[in-house]
Batch of 2 targets.
Target 1
Amino acid sequence: MIAQKKGEYEIRPYRHNMNWQIQKFATCSSTNTQLKEALLSGKVQAGTVFIADEQTQGHGRLDRTWVSPKGNVALSCGCPLPKNLQKVYQLNLIAALSVLHLLKNKYGFENVFLKWPNDVWIKDKKVCGILSEVVAEADAVVVGIGVNVNSRLKDFPQDLRPLLTTLKEIINTDLDLPEFIKGLLKNFDENLKLYLKNGLSFFLPEITKDLKYFHQRVRVESEGNAAFEGKILGIDENGFLKIKTDNEIRQVISGDVTLSE
Ligand code: BT5
């Protein structure tokens, strides 16, 4: 296959026009792990999407557990690897925005927020998490998206229940899951195209509008660094979080953000 080059992002000759090659599984350890392995072994290429009804070993960042009961969305999209690896972080935001658009525009949910760097929240609860993992040898990045759709709080471990919500808990009815996934992949497809053409800057006004804790004082924790507090000023064109502390403006590449007490 011949790759075309566009800016810093290599575009493979698959088109993002709902042309994802979809493979479905009833049960999967983790769609991210399975897709990474399939990409590495050359069985599939970028453009492939793995979807599972449930995952037994779903994971988040830093090997945290992602709970993935039946009725939810668990899927992973194989995307071409940006040449600049920092851009992998930007794919998290593009995927999160695609979920946010779907929840707000197609299903009419209110109080939907993008929580930097990789979540979608409704009010004060997490409803979606995203994990992008690089598969350098296959020139690909796997973008994993988990959304709590038709599950109930009782389907989750007790300790997680206060932190999360599901769409069914909010509207008390099931959504058509295949239709939901179709809409999600369509949005991701369209947003990826716009992103490849215009870069992240194009989306910053939208991201900022629905950014969780925008202009609020938060605590930032990132691995290997001392925690600190400051006000969220927004997200820059790299996808980094801009925080105003008492004496400087800091850029955060990755980490966890909680509201200051
Ligand atoms: C994430 O990590 O939020 C990324 C989750 C990515 C899941 C997708 S599903 C398809 C693909 N296959 C995978 O194996 N993963 C991807 P992080 O920001 O580190 O957040 C993890 C934390 O979210 C956990 O420590 C829990 O506190 C919480 N959590 C776990 N399951 C949850 C759920 N279903 N809904 C909301 N929060 C959850």
Target 2
Amino acid sequence: MNENINNIASLLASARKAVVVTGAGISTEAGIPDFRGENGIYRKLGENRVLNIINIDFFRKHPDQFYAFFRENLTFPNVEPSKAHYMLAEMEKRGVIKGIVTQNIDGLHNKAGSKKVIPIHGTADRFVCTGSGCNKVYDYDYVLNHPDIVPSCSECGNILKPDVVLFGENIHNYIDASEMILSADVLLVIGSSLTVYPLAGMVKEFSTITQNLIIINKGYTQLDHAAVVKLDTGKTGDALEAINALI
Ligand code: NAD
């Protein structure tokens, strides 16, 4: 563990442009379950069932069932960032990292004070009207206080869709995310099993160009073999604190 921490710190200290990629695992210490980890939503509810619900076809056909799942499992209004989120914000402020590309939809990087964050799967506390040409945006309070399980637009009456990327939809900020990752000379991946594309593909492409891929994750990821350092821990906040202190 200590040797890995030292190696990660020295790679980050000598980086020209260090970039961080985060997945659901960085938010488990804040109390939000991930998908594929040992206490993840897939284990609790069944992978096929979850995959069936969080896709755009299901949302269109069964918005009521979609919202029942979304309201119970994918809304995080009162969650505070973990130590890991705060450490990354601190590392950005010190110039150690240049930015974060995240798959997370919980908004915790921004809440912790990170400035350069590219959220490729959108954000769970923003809702957009699906009415053609309307595009009116609503916040979480509007949806929470809406009398129906499926919230609708106060102007045109069409249903709202959470501003998150569902299976079957294109990710947000593809070009910005790809540029940020591929222009880095050190890439630090935290809390992702690296199974969800296209982000996993971007990390894979990075690893074919430069050797400086670092992974901090509890358990196996799809790109462990390509990492120059793999730190296997669930105490990501403590690990980042130790790394930051060494730089
Ligand atoms: P994933 O669930 O596939 O993988 C998470 C990984 O993090 C697992 O390997 C797990 O063992 C590891 N992990 C769990 N706790 C950890 C900790 N404290 N420290 C280090 N590692 C830890 O996550 P993914 O690759 O991000 O893919 C999941 C998809 O689901 C993403 O698209 C994401 O948008 C969405 N999602 C987001 C949230 C969120 O916003 N917090 C939560 C659940 C799912």
